[in-house]
Design a protein that fits this description.
- With 238 residues, the protein is of the alpha/beta class.
- It is built from six helices and seven strands.
- The protein has helices at residues 19-30, 42-52, 67-81, 107-135, 154-173, 207-218; strands at 10-14, 34-39, 57-61, 86-89, 138-142, 179-185, 228-231.
- The protein has a seven-stranded parallel β-sheet with strand order 3-2-1-4-5-6-7, sandwiched between helices.
- Helix 1 (19-30) crosses helix 6, helix 3 (67-81) runs parallel beside helix 4 and helix 4 (107-135) packs parallel to helix 5.
- 40% of the residues are buried.
């Protein structure tokens, strides 16, 4: 169903090549948005942009930890579509040993994860907020239940950072008419849960479930700000 309120608006999505980012792009285009797709995987981005249609989507290779990449991607979005109404800071991953005191952590993997999950979200906010202030737009950050309930390992710390970042940004820009939403999913079906990590008989969210929540927040009237959406599979107890 196409929303007349969103027709022609532009949503920039980081981590758009797969998972929640790609699912959100598909649902947003169906709802009338145009999308700027950012990720490091250029071939997957190009395929998704072709699927969504050249008039509705642009593929932009970008590493969210690199300021010139983000600055260039935002400039390309404005050149192509002439506006920016919303940004979804979705890029992130978990890597290395899931605990501090045991296992065989690879510090470089931890470093890349922390830079992507935390610095990447902060740089995405910095690159897009001046334009979102101009459009009285919407910034969305993908956090996690692990940013509300501490779990072992540094991944949880990165998501606590997102929870704090969302509230910090909200306090900075809400008077400018910018809405800020932190999306906090529980267990989502991803490759991470392979290799024996999957809890027995556990329920999982799907990418489309989280994307629907993101579209719900985006499609509210301008005077309504959904600041947090905490979403768990029904049977997840943590």
């Amino acid at each position: 169903m196409t929303s007349t309120s969103s027709t022609g608006k532009v949503l920039l999505i980081t981590g758009a090549s797969t998972g929640i980012g790609a699912a959100t792009a598909r649902q947003a285009v169906q709802a009338g948005w145009r999308v700027a797709l950012l990720a490091r995987s250029e071939d997957k981005l190009q395929a998704l942009a072709a699927e969504l249609g050249g008039e509705q989507a642009i593929a932009l290779r970008a590493d969210v930890t690199q300021w010139p990449d983000l600055e260039g991607a935002v400039a390309a979005t404005l050149e192509r579509f002439g506006r920016l109404d919303a940004a979804l800071a979705n890029a992130g991953f978990t890597a290395g040993a899931p605990r501090y005191a045991t296992g065989d952590p690879t510090p470089d993997e931890w470093r890349d994860m922390i830079l992507t999950n935390v610095l990447g979200a902060a740089l995405t906010a910095r690159a897009t907020l001046p334009h979102l202030i101009g459009s009285r737009g919407h910034l969305l950050l993908v956090g996690s239940v692990a940013g509300r309930v501490a779990t072992p390992g540094p991944y949880s710390a990165t998501k606590w950072a997102i929870s704090g970042m969302g509230e910090s940004i909200r306090r900075e820009v809400s008077a400018e008419g910018v809405r800020v939403t932190t999306i906090e999913p529980g267990r989502v079906e991803t490759p991470f849960w392979a290799e024996g990590r999957k809890p027995q008989n556990a329920e999982f969210l799907q990418d489309d479930d989280v994307a629907r929540a993101i579209l719900y927040a985006l499609e509210q009237p301008a005077h309504v700000a959904i600041n947090e959406l905490l979403i768990r599979p029904t049977t997840q107890d943590v």
